[in-house]
Specification:
The chain is an alpha/beta fold. It contains 16 helices and 12 strands. The strands form 2 sheets. It has a 6-stranded parallel sheet, with helices on both faces. The radius of gyration is 21 Å and the shape is elongated. The model has no long low-confidence stretch (mean pLDDT 88).
Length: 371
């Protein structure tokens, strides 16, 4: 029996969804292969995992300019090199136990931190197991760069070129896309879903998301949308943001538009399938999933760093429009609803750069390596 170990950090994140997408594809293609999908930091150092997640979330919410400075900054990288090596060494005992217990034929990481841990582990312990790095944003950053990574799955020709410029060999890179769960290729009955959600069948549906944690100016956006006279309805996915969900449910009757409110949802493929426009922060997984559904995107409040880079990619591909603020987002929605030709151009551009079979291609590649 073949064994594949998938590593990510942070539950309910894009990295987690990417790992789950690859796991789903592997299970379909090779049911006899044993796939283990593990939160690396929770396993090796749960306290550190909580500290890193809390610090990152606080920085993003309160001081995004600090993250902009830290992200892919060569000076910061050089200063962090020794600290990263110390952390990897500190966690190596637990990682060794995991590797010894699982005895994987291949390790794949959907986030740079566990990829670096395993790369250093391979060097220290002479581990002869293929290591695959799976990028989950449209532009790579330097924290992915390790000599002992055997292959990189990249989302685009641009990201491949950036890795080549950083010194990664061309034959180590494979442009299979950000792994999107196979369910995003499923066709749903729009009428049935809308009926179940108690929404109308003959008016446009706007889907609003704020990532796994329900971030962004969603309250302001709802008030701005309330000023639009055109007929449409709204679905809001709040992620783990219970405060936002409660706020929306309390004010449902105040809004002039019909609204369905979700917390953290495993039905994003279905919700995207029945929607006409997505308003969101441009996380790599969310936008890759939207592209797979041919769903036009209005970008709001991108996080500096990876989401700013994703924004550049989507705007260049003409698959999205960027709003300056909530009011501007509402104006863009109104403009698209009044101009179906313009809306259709965004849909066609989204489909053109979509890679809905990405998880299967990645899974096939992994299975080929370990045969």
């Amino acid at each position: 029996m073949k064994r594949i170990l998938l590593l990510y950090i942070s539950n309910n994140s894009g990295h987690h969804r990417a790992a789950k997408a690859v796991e789903a594809a592997l299970t379909i293609l090779s049911p006899e292969t044993k796939v283990m999908n593990i939160n690396c930091l929770n396993y090796t150092n749960p306290v550190m995992g909580k500290v890193i997640n809390t610090t990152y979330n606080n920085v993003i919410k309160l001081k995004p300019e600090v993250w902009e400075y830290l992200y892919d900054n060569p000076k910061v990288m050089n200063r962090m090199r020794k600290i990263r090596k110390f952390i990897h060494k500190f966690n190596s005992k637990k990682l060794k136990k995991l590797i010894d217990d699982v005895r994987p034929d291949l390790v794949a990481c959907s986030q740079a931190f566990p990829c670096g841990m395993v790369a250093d582990f391979k060097k220290t312990y002479n581990l002869d197991v293929p290591l695959v790095g799976i990028l989950t944003d449209f532009s790579p950053h330097s924290y992915w760069l390790y000599d002992n990574v055997d292959a990189y799955i990249v989302p685009s020709a641009q990201s491949k070129q950036k890795f080549i410029e950083s010194g990664i060999k061309k034959n180590k890179m494979f442009t299979y896309g950000i792994p999107v769960n196979p369910e995003f290729s499923t066709k749903y009955s729009r009428l049935t879903v809308l009926k179940n959600l108690k929404l109308e069948k003959d008016i446009p549906t706007i889907l609003i998301m704020g990532g796994g944690q329900g971030l962004g100016p969603i309250e302001d956006l709802m008030f701005a949308l309330n000023t639009i006279e055109l007929p449409f309805q709204v679905i809001v996915v709040c992620g783990t943001n219970k405060k936002l969900k409660k706020w929306l449910e309390k004010r449902k009757l105040l809004f002039r538009k019909k609204m369905a409110v979700f917390g953290y949802s495993n039905e994003i493929a279905m919700l995207m399938h029945i929607s006409d426009i997505l308003v969101t922060k441009p996380g790599g997984l969310t936008t890759a999933e939207a592209l797979a559904k041919g769903l036009p995107i209005i970008i709001v409040n991108p996080i500096p760093g990876q989401e700013a880079k994703n924004t550049e990619f989507l705007l260049k591909a003409k698959a999205a429009e960027k709003a300056k603020n909530s009011l501007d987002a509402a104006m863009l929605i109104e403009d698209l609803l009044k101009n179906p030709v313009k809306l259709n151009k965004l849909k066609l551009a989204a489909k053109k750069c979509a890679m809905p079979q990405s998880a299967f291609k990645i899974a096939e590649f992994m299975l080929k390596i370990i045969k």
